[in-house]
Amino acid sequence: MSLGALSSRPFFPHWYKSMTNDFVHRWVPGTSGKTVLLLHGTGGDENDLLELGRMVAPDAAFLSPRGKVLERGMPRFFRRLSEGVFDLDDLRLRTHDLADWLASAAAKYEFDPASVTVLGYSNGANIAASMLLLRPSSIANAVLLRAMLPFEPEESPGLSGKRILMSNGKNDPIIPMASSTRLAEILKASGADVKFNVSNGGHGLEQGDITQAHAWYQALDASYAKS
Q1: pLDDT average, residue stretch 181-203
Q2: Pick from 135, 155, 174, 187: most CB atoms within 10 A?
Q3: Is 101 within 8 Å of 69 (Cβ atoms)?
Q4: Is 122 in the active site?
């Protein structure tokens, strides 16, 4: 689901758009040496989260792919059988595909894949959660906006040292709070440092989500500078 008011197309003087490695994507260089992987919601594209990304991590580089699955013409990162019911075989396939592509993009654009922070919304947050469960070494940290548990993992993925911010709304008609809470529990039990914010909002993002994500990312950036 797209971000509505946040989906305007910002102007960046230096950016690249490519269809290499099977993902249409944009690469926006930054000045901090850090890279943020932007994963849009259903109906978004490679432009959709650029403005949000700049609000959260002003100096970061951005890698923003477009989901390859179409649902009634709307891009997604994996198939679903109905609202809230995922095609788990497709989800696993697409998760590994995205993780492999991220590694190749890191080589192409010369950034460290071990220090990537994911910023995902809705469908993008769900595949980011799947990456944490299936390919934990592919990303370092994550901001999961309106995420739910994509599947119950068979074993702990081992997330020690990773920092994760989750942000959900009590009145979200799409994301069950019980599923989001279960995801947070699994991530914590797997060793991640999880901050789980719950607002009174719905599925759409609010200013509070952006403010909290920005503060969380700034604290993350400061901790890296000290290490």
Answers
A1: 97
A2: 187
A3: no
A4: yes
